[in-house]
Amino acid sequence: MDRRAFLSLTNGRTLAVAAATAADQALDVQVLQTAASVEYAMIGAYETMLGLALFTSNSANPVLKNLLTTARAQHTEHAGAYNAIATALGGKAQTGANSNLAQAVTRAKAGLTDIGPAVELALLLESTAAQTFQNDLGLLTDVNARRLTGSVLAVESQHVGLLLIAKALLGARALELVSLEAGTRDKLPADAAKAGFPVSIAKTDQARPSSEGAVK
User: Fold this and answer.
1) What are phi and psi of 188, to 5 degrees?
2) How far apart, in Å, are the Cα atoms of 55 and each of 39, 165, 212?
């Protein structure tokens, strides 16, 4: 092979690698922007819920109130972290809520007069987030984005588990057992703790599409 042919082949390969890298980064940015939009949907939902009498009155369950308060702060951190990597990869920050999840919150808002619907809404949002981020791990190519998503997935999965236990206790008419008081464990229904681990392999049917929250 002469020098001209070799350089032509080398340049072709370089361009192909550059194009593939750019495509990977573009997809990573979309995934990260969508992830941030999911986080902002949960932030908005929890701000709304925590302003309701369900959580502001003296009769509010302190454990559930603390769960939503803590989760809101964590989601704020997650959204910022997702946007930091998205912008580092050349994309724009996503500061808006995922439209589909925001609509779900709007539809549910009128029914948030009892703790049951509130737990159901939080569980829907956290399950969607966990499944979205689980799906994202198979799409992302950037190492930092994958590391972030893996750590966020663990947090969202913990939220899901706690909410599933709360839902089980509500179903057993034992909301008072959603408590950190000593001795509560011995009073729990037999299946309550198991409710936090419903399946051995998590599904991703609720995952939001990777481009849904992309910023143009």
Assistant:
1) -65, 140
2) 21, 19, 31
* Helices and strands, number each (H, E), in the chain: 6, 0
Could you tell me the residue ranges of all domains in the chain? 25-196
Angle made by CA atoms 36, 42, 43, in degrees to the nearest 5: 85
pTM as predicted: 0.81
Could you please state the CATH topology (level 3) that the domain comprising 25-196 is classified under.
Answer: Ferritin (1.20.1260)
Least confident of 56-60, 72-76, 99-103: 56-60
Helix ranges (H only) for 89-186 are 99-109, 115-136, 143-171
Residue whose C-alpha is closest to residue 129's, from 165, 103, 154, 93: 154
* Residue with tokens 């959204």, as numbered in its chain: 79
Residue type (1 letter), 75: H
Count other C-beta atoms under 10 Å from residue 158's C-beta. 16
The answer to whether 189 and 142 have CB atoms below 8 angstroms apart is no
| Mean pLDDT, residues 25-33 | 94
- Indicate if the pLDDT at residue 91 is higher than 70: yes
Report the chain's mean pLDDT, rounded to a whole number.
83
The dihedral through the CA atoms of 211, 150, 125, 200 has a sign that is positive
